[in-house]
């Protein structure tokens, strides 16, 4: 792989691809999230406490860069939506490095090949974090840079090693982006005539480097990570390796399949079928297609890309399986489209009818992907907005009631019981797009840490929030009467504590409610 730097493109190529990617990602994907403006999970805690907290996740570089962005403030500053907006150009820069290395010369095709990196549905969760989106994107860019600069000399290995260490320090699951991106670099090298034993050697070298950097990062951060992170970072024991790999593979596949409605899965299948046609033509037109090595290469490649998209997570005893850790899915789809682009490039040497058919098939596949991605993004944005409106309606009414009870009954504390459900709109969208329903957690829940942070920002500061672990001083058979009754909650008073019972899903019920006094 002597063409480590790819090709030297016209500067206009870089600017056009960069502008195209950023523009499409913003209009098709990020805009509905920005308009919804709902803090996402950890954002609620960071807004309430000003605590940085990324060191506890082994993400020391994210912690450092956020301090720089906040101009060194000791408490975290809410700069949203700046980190989310930063994510797009950051990700576009990484995509440019990779596109240059695999030599996609057409501006339009380069944009469409890289579009899934930041537009695939699972990446919606990464973009939802108002504090974190930019650093997750920077982790992906570090991975793409490492894949584009890795080569067989000390300088190339050193550059890739530093980039991978940065990747781990920014967002560990982004290492999977490196693995998939580098597989496509090897495909390009094979297309350029590189022999198979060199391809295999480079692949093993890249995997070994990623593993070594991962172990180095694990050692450097072991003293600072939280117990939860440590628990979910434990590797499978050797004697359970095979069964664990099978179980984890099944869990990831099951999660991905359960994330989409059956009709959406049919659209994904159609996308795969359209995208596979150029793959098939590409394999047939290779000069060495009759060799055993070449046949094995093209047979194993799709499986290798699929495994690389989850990468080291398969080796964990208890991996976290959530949309945000599957950000390499976009790289997987981009690689799928890249091989189709290679086929179109080669088809120029065949009959014009074959070339035209391949181009039409490829553009149909990319168009279908854009439809799926955009529909999910705007449905997700509307679901976020509907949930935010419901939560703010409830908490606004609750704030007024508690303030009045402070004046009339002298309450000094609040205890939350039960939970609210998703809004009707959010539930309907979740039925059509299951993973969207699972991503949006109600922030008013008696057993959810987010509820304390959420309420602390909206209720009177003079009221103490009683933690859920504190045992109540009453029984369900002799509990206080209801003093305030609303459509979404009711309030009782015990001594000087207001017990807010969310009606949608109360964790306990009194034997008598009594009339509101």
From TrEMBL:
Pfam families: Glucos_trans_II (PF14264)
Annotated TM spans: 13-35, 82-99, 106-123, 129-147, 159-186, 198-217, 238-258, 264-280, 292-315, 321-342, 362-381
Signal peptide region: none
Record flagged with keyword Transmembrane helix: yes
Key words, A-Z: Membrane, Transmembrane, Transmembrane helix
Name the record gives this protein: Glycosyltransferase RgtA/B/C/D-like domain-containing protein
Originating species: Ahniella affigens
